[in-house]
Structures are given as structure tokens and as C-alpha cells.
Amino acid sequence: MSVMRKAIFPNRNFKILMLGLDNAGKTTVLYKLLNGSPTTLPTMGIDIETVQLTRNVSFTIYDVGRQPEIGALWADGLIFVIDSSDQSLFEEARRVLWQTLSSHDMKGVPVVVFANKQDLPQAVSPLEVTNSLRLSQVHHRQWYVQGTSATDGSGLTKGMRKLRRLVREFQSMNRS
Ligand SMILES: Nc1nc2c(ncn2[C@@H]2O[C@H](COP(=O)(O)OP(=O)(O)O)[C@@H](O)[C@H]2O)c(=O)[nH]1
Ligand SMILES: [Mg+2]
């Protein structure tokens, strides 16, 4: 897994922001991504979590409600984690996602949604999550929805690779 991570983000510093409602699965995602890493985690799950995912990739997690000033939302890429098994929270999740995307610092920044907890029987499909978040109305940025199960790790590598690709495209567009 750590070799995999190096392959995903070589040669450059990236700041990835991971956002989502409390209980969506953010900390679990991070632990899974860090699994096998020589990095020792600092206190997790208490304050804002920032870790060095690889030498080049820093990962910052915000539970909603603990967000910093809007200017601190700058990132190269956004991961939005949603609990696909709890539809009662979809509207709140949508509000938070759209509010985040409206931040000036997030302008054009690609977003990959982790439609998490796909292992649960009551989970809705990534397509239904896409519709609930109204992603078809997101313009002027690349987005992608990846079904994940953070507890067993499925979908995480695929989602990270997709994010890597979108971030690179975004950066090459901005440079030219
Ligand atoms: N079944 C299932 N449970 C999950 C999954 N991801 C996270 N959880 C559980 O959901 C709860 C909240 O996860 P956590 O990572 O703390 O969420 P956070 O508040 O977003 O950091 C924990 O009990 C996790 O074990 C998943 O993919 N499937
Ligand atoms: Mg957490």
C-alpha cells in the first residue's frame, strides 16, 4: 500500500482536503490509506487531523462544524466523504458540499466524492448519491463519485487515483 501511495502522487507536493459530515468515515479512510506506512500517527480523531500521507502529500481532514476560516480551505484536491447508508443526512451533506465549493479558494478544484459505507445493505448506489448531491449542476470543475467501503478499503485506491488524475489535469490547465 505504501508503494502504491508513492505511485499515486510522485514528485510534487499536494494538499488534499477531506471533508464530510461527522460519522461519514473520514478518519477510517485516512487510517486505511496510512495502513502499512512507517508514519506514526499523531493524536487522531480529536482535533483537525493533518498528516503527511506520503513525503509529498499532506492530508487534512475537517469534520463539518469544525471548519476553519473559509480562507484556510485552500487545497489542490477535495475528497468529500458521505455515508451512503443514511439518506436523512443527504440534504445537510449537499449543503455543506456546495458551500465548500463556493469558496473562492476552491475555485475549479476537482472533487472526488467517496460514496462510503457501500458494504451496508441500506446504502444507496453511487449514482443515487450523485443525484442527491446534485453534482450534475456542478460546473467549471471536474468531479467524480467513487463507491467506497472505508472499513475494508474497497474503492479507496481507485478514488485516490482518480483524484490524482483530476488534480494533474487541473494544474496543467492552470499553468498553460
Ligand atoms: N460499515 C461501514 N462502516 C464504516 C465505514 N466507514 C466508516 N465506518 C464506521 O462509521 C463510523 C464513523 O467513522 P469515522 O471514520 O470515525 O467517521 P468521521 O467522523 O467522518 O471521521 C465508525 O464506526 C466507522 O467504523 C464503511 O465503509 N462501512
Ligand atoms: Mg473523524
Structure description:
A six-stranded mixed β-sheet has the order 2-3-1-4-5-6, with helices on both faces. It has five helices and six strands. Helix content is 31%, strand content 20%. With 176 residues, the chain is α/β, with parallel strands linked by helices. It has a single domain, classed as 3-Layer(aba) Sandwich (Rossmann fold), CATH 3.40.50. Helix 4 links the parallel strand 5 and strand 6. The protein starts with a helix and ends with a helix. The radius of gyration is 15 Å and the shape is globular. About 6% of the residues have low confidence. Guanosine-5'-diphosphate binds next to helix 2.
CATH superfamily: P-loop containing nucleotide triphosphate hydrolases
CATH class: Alpha Beta
- Structural domain tally: 1
What level of helicity do the residues show? 25-40%
Largest sheet: 6 strands, mixed
Helices and strands in order:
Blueprint: H1 2-8, E1 14-20, H2 26-34, E2 49-52, E3 57-63, E4 77-83, H3 90-101, E5 111-116, H4 126-132, E6 143-147, H5 156-175
Parallel strand pairs: 1-3, 1-4, 4-5, 5-6
Antiparallel strand pairs: 2-3
The structure holds guanosine-5'-diphosphate and magnesium ion.
